[in-house]
Amino acid sequence: MKRLLLFLALLLSVSVSYAEKVKVRLFSNNKIEAIYVSFDLGMYDLYADDGMLLEPSLGEGMTVELKPTATGVSIAVNGYEYGNFRSARLQATDTACIMCLNPKGVKQRTYEGDLVVSSFDKSNLKIINEVEFETYLAGVVQSEIYGQQSDIFRVQAMISRTWAMRNMGKHKADGYNFCDYVHCQAYQNRCVRPDIILGTMQSSGETIVDADGKLIDTPFHSNSGGQTANSEDVWRSALPYLRSVTDTFSFHMRQSNWTKVIGKEKWLNYFAKTHKLDITNATVRDELLSFQQPERKARILGVPLTRVRTDFGLKSTFFSVSVDDKGANVILTGHGYGHGVGLSQEGTIRMVGLGISYDSIIRHYYTGASVHKDENVSESYVENFVTEISKIIEEDKANPGQKKSKKDDWLGKLFRVRDRMDREEEFDPSKQEMEEDWKVEW
Predict the structure, then answer these.
(1) Which helix (H) or strand (E) holds 423?
(2) Helix or strand (DSSP H, E) at 283
């Protein structure tokens, strides 16, 4: 309690501008015929159309059912049908709010922020999460990378923040900023891990820029297989900061190596029919059956390896070919997972484990780029937040297996601090030792 009160005092002493919200389309890769929204924490107000309040203070035990219609959305609360409206909005009443989304036929997810629901047509809902930018980033980091050390998440947060800032208008014509699929960045849930929040907060205000100080493209992939790819070998543009580099840090990781067996005749006929190669020519045939990549190449006999990867569903374009002992199959011995351009996530995990600094990792994968720190971001706020979340992580480690409700976990503790900040007009130091004055009733 004392340290949370201290944290409150520190928060009140700085000016923070982390409340900018972004709009993210959820379940963008699914057709949503109905969604059921319940509430894990906090209270939500339900609005229809352009501000008509239908139901205030929805919380635990309440369920909102939303379905598409020919003209909008049908709305029901705990079985009571309000009727059809152009759109529905669930608006959080404070910062300590978590909603649980259960779309028909799709796995449940939880999110913070607000929810705006309309329809594409009578059989598909358009679901938008309006959420604070940094909260969105933490969810992206959780969805995009694994690991245990905060610098892993710091690096991923910088990459994701840089990409998001460059692409804020990507879906402007659709009425939102980003989708939740890999077309933009994966955003499959609210962040539920304090170490990821820690890494994201440590990266606050940090982006990646080129030699001219401009935000760069920040592509990343799971594993380079030992060498990253030039951007022009995968896409059209040759970018100076997306150069192929040797990447031994990606060795001996989950996705370092792979193999795939393909029928020899299927392999040869693919190049004959799809790419018009003369497989009766001994030189052509021999190259297709013994192709080697000691270093990354872009093509095999003029055929883009990116096309081969797509058509055969390969993990990467970084592979060599041999024929099995019976001569019936070709064996593709491959390295890495993903397009290979930019940062290798598993290489990053290895580098962090070796004690290599986050900015050195950025410079390794993005040639000539550097980390830029926004001077408008309050360093004291970041330091205070990092200190407090670090203490909460250590407290959890000291009490393994302790059962905690959503209201009492690490996020709940920080929510309580933010709630008090909202409720109190000013901080009263005399209340520090009076716990009853600060008790939060749930």
Answers:
(1) helix 410-423
(2) helix 282-290
Q: What's the rounded Cα separation, in Å, for the pair 378 and 386?
A: 12
Sequence length of the chain is: 442
pTM of structure: 0.85
Q: Six-digit token pair at 6? A: 């201290």
DSSP E strands in 233-328: the ranges are: 257-263, 299-300, 303-304, 319-323
| pLDDT at residue 369 in the model | 97
Q: Is residue 188 within a helix (H) or strand (E), and if so which, with residue range?
A: none
Contact 49, 142 (CB under 8 A): no
The single-letter code of the amino acid at 404 is K
pLDDT for 237 equals 92
| C-alpha closest to that of 417 among 393, 395, 392, 396 | 392
The token pair at 258 is 């792979």
pLDDT averages per 10-residue partition of the chain, 442 residues: 39 43 96 96 93 95 96 96 97 89 95 96 96 94 93 97 95 96 93 90 94 96 98 95 98 97 98 97 97 97 97 98 96 97 97 97 98 88 80 80 58 54 43 36 29
The residue extents of the domains of the chain are: 27-134, 257-335
Nearby residues of 240 by Cβ (< 8 Å), 6 or more positions away: 210, 367, 368
Task: Give the per-residue pLDDT at 380.
Answer: 79
The owner of tokens 């610098």 is: 151
Structure tokens of 265?
């005749």
Burial class (CB in 10 A: 0-12, 13-18, 19+), 31: middle
In sequence order, the β-bridge partners of residue 223 are 337
Question: Strands, E, within 122-245: which ranges?
Answer: 124-132, 178-179, 206-209, 220-221
Structure tokens at 205: 């205000």
Measured distance CA(123)–CA(430) in Å, rounded: 58
Architecture of domain 27-134 in CATH? Answer: Sandwich (2.60)
Assess contact for 365 and 342: CB atoms under 8 A.
yes
Rg (CA), the chain: 26
Identify the residue whose tokens are 């001569």: 327
Give the Cα separation of 202 and 339 in Å (integer): 28
DSSP states of 191-225: ---HHHHHHHHHTTTEEEE-TTSPBPP--EESB-T
Q: Are 115 and 316 in contact (CB under 8 A)?
A: no
Task: Report CA 224 to chain centroid distance, whole Å.
Answer: 19
Helix (H) or strand (E) holding 379: helix 379-398
**Beta carbons of 389 and 11 less than 8 angstroms apart:** no
One DSSP character per residue, 350-365 reads HHHHTT--HHHHHHHH
